From TrEMBL:
<dbReference type="GO" id="GO:0019556">
    <property type="term" value="P:L-histidine catabolic process to glutamate and formamide"/>
</dbReference>
<dbReference type="GO" id="GO:0050480">
    <property type="term" value="F:imidazolonepropionase activity"/>
</dbReference>
<feature type="binding site">
    <location>
        <position position="327"/>
    </location>
    <ligand>
        <name>4-imidazolone-5-propanoate</name>
    </ligand>
</feature>
<dbReference type="InterPro" id="IPR011059">
    <property type="entry name" value="Metal-dep_hydrolase_composite"/>
</dbReference>
<feature type="binding site">
    <location>
        <position position="150"/>
    </location>
    <ligand>
        <name>4-imidazolone-5-propanoate</name>
    </ligand>
</feature>
<keyword id="KW-0963">Cytoplasm</keyword>
<feature type="binding site">
    <location>
        <position position="80"/>
    </location>
    <ligand>
        <name>Fe(3+)</name>
    </ligand>
</feature>
<dbReference type="InterPro" id="IPR006680">
    <property type="entry name" value="Amidohydro-rel"/>
</dbReference>
<keyword id="KW-0479">Metal-binding</keyword>
<dbReference type="InterPro" id="IPR005920">
    <property type="entry name" value="HutI"/>
</dbReference>
<feature type="binding site">
    <location>
        <position position="183"/>
    </location>
    <ligand>
        <name>4-imidazolone-5-propanoate</name>
    </ligand>
</feature>
<dbReference type="GO" id="GO:0005506">
    <property type="term" value="F:iron ion binding"/>
</dbReference>
<keyword id="KW-0862">Zinc</keyword>
<feature type="binding site">
    <location>
        <position position="251"/>
    </location>
    <ligand>
        <name>4-imidazolone-5-propanoate</name>
    </ligand>
</feature>
<keyword id="KW-0369">Histidine metabolism</keyword>
<feature type="binding site">
    <location>
        <position position="78"/>
    </location>
    <ligand>
        <name>Fe(3+)</name>
    </ligand>
</feature>
<protein>
    <recommendedName>
        <fullName>Imidazolonepropionase</fullName>
        <ecNumber>3.5.2.7</ecNumber>
    </recommendedName>
</protein>
């Protein structure tokens, strides 16, 4: 199967040589070819260039992209899309004045989602979750990290992993699976958190690893959830099974989780709504990607991650949705790219770098995703007609997408 996209107004994020990450000042650059073509064979980007070199070229499917922008699909490196039901009633409670923490303390929040998930069959959970993923693909996302963390029992966490495994097998999207059993303390362990941690370490991690699906390990390192010491214990246990850390840190409080993540070679440290100079220093010269989740800040009305401070310090930054039922019930990366510009004061170039190549890095596969490079996977967005790529973040709330190609197939 071959696809030729021709007369492209701007082909963006083009890299002749495969790059893995973009940092600091370099994030301001987004390589563009004007009046371009792109040739896809099966699931792979094979060739591209200016239209001058397209003469005589043909393919089984030819798409005329006159007036349109073509770019790599969004890489969403932080989601919790496997969940059951929703938390609409908590949304209304918050409008009426309750805080996220007050709702959680009353047994709502993550524990509410866990109760719903425990009472949902694997098939039902799969159907609800893949529907969310399909909606994300239609909005331009081609690679997605998916976490567990709404099971909170051995059986329910394994059920989540099985669902993620099925999604990974069935979907055209690239999936990065993460074990986040340490997402909240189950009510039955309220008075004995260490017993739950022991269960994760001695029972769940070995069983999860036998399922051969989880690649990453996550912990919600936060007051009232898991301390830095708890987090370290779990990361060390994960390491024995080759699970790479990708952790929730600094959402509400600075506890030292960023440094811990860096010390344990975390692939990413996510949230960072609260951040200090020590965190920036810890990230300097590390291989750990900081990840901002502006949809969560928007929905919970908490501070936005200080992206300028991060990028201006010469660090890389990725942006992701955090799609989940409690703090971000949206998987729309177009909105995240807009929010990065409007609220995090990132330029369109920085936001697009953060949502493509750096998002792919934060999932460990920027060698195959996140840029227009020969040999990389053909996950492509073709926009509606627009004057420049800056209109993608500018027209917030609009759907900028005309066509999505995923794994070399036109998505319908
Ligand atoms: N902060 C921890 N986990 C999720 C929210 C979970 C929930 O409220 O269900 C997050 O990343 O925002
Ligand atoms: Zn999260």
């Amino acid at each position: 199967m071959s696809i030729l996209i021709k007369n492209i107004k701007q082909l963006i994020q083009v890299h002749e040589n495969s790059i893995l990450i973009v940092k600091g000042e370099d994030m301001k650059t987004l390589p563009v070819i004007e009046n371009a073509y792109l040739y896809i064979q099966d699931d792979t980007i094979v060739e591209y260039g200016t239209m001058d070199f397209c003469e005589g070229m043909d393919a089984e499917t030819v798409i005329d992209a006159t007036g349109k922008i073509v770019l790599p699909s969004w890489c969403d490196s932080h989601t919790h899309i496997v969940y059951a039901g929703n938390r609409v009633s908590e949304f209304v409670d918050r409008i009426n004045g309750l805080s996220y923490a007050e709702i959680a303390n009353r047994g709502g929040g993550i524990l509410n989602s866990a109760k719903q998930l425990q009472n949902t069959s694997e098939d039902d959970l799969y159907n609800q979750s893949i529907k969310r993923l399909d909606e994300m693909i239609a909005m331009g996302t081609g690679a997605v990290e998916i976490k567990t963390g709404y099971g909170l029992t051995i059986d329910a966490e394994l059920k989540m992993l099985k669902v993620i495994k099925r999604i990974k097998q069935d979907s055209l999207a690239k999936i990065a699976p993460t074990l986040l059993a340490a997402h909240a303390i189950p009510s039955e362990y309220r008075k004995d958190k260490s017993a739950y941690i022991d269960k994760i370490i001695n029972e769940l991690i070995p069983k999860a690893s036998a399922l051969r699906v989880a690649k990453y390990i996550d912990v919600f390192c936060e007051k009232g959830y898991f301390s830095v010491e708890d987090t370290e214990k779990i990361l060390k246990a994960g390491k024995k099974y080759n699970l790479i850390p990708k952790i929730h840190v600094n959402q509400f409080n600075i506890l030292g989780g960023v440094k811990l993540g860096v010390d344990h070679n975390a692939l990413s440290v996510d949230h960072l709504e609260e951040l200090n100079e020590d965190d920036i220093e810890a990230l300097r010269d590390s291989d750990t990607m900081p990840v901002a989740l502006p949809g969560c800040s928007y929905f919970l009305e908490i501070p936005y991650t200080p992206a300028r401070q991060i990028i201006d310090a010469g660090l890389p930054l990725a942006i992701a949705t955090d799609y989940n039922p409690g703090s971000t019930p949206s998987g729309n990366m177009n909105f995240i790219v807009s929010s990065a510009c409007i609220k995090l004061k990132m330029t369109p170039e920085e936001a697009i770098n953060a949502a493509t190549i750096n998002g792919a890095y934060a999932m460990g596969f920027s060698n195959m995703y996140g840029s227009i490079t020969r040999g990389k996977k053909a996950n492509i967005i073709i926009t509606k007609p627009m004057d420049s790529y800056a209109e993608i973040p500018y027209a917030f709330g609009h759907n900028p997408i005309n066509t999505v190609i995923i794994n070399g197939q036109v998505w319908t």
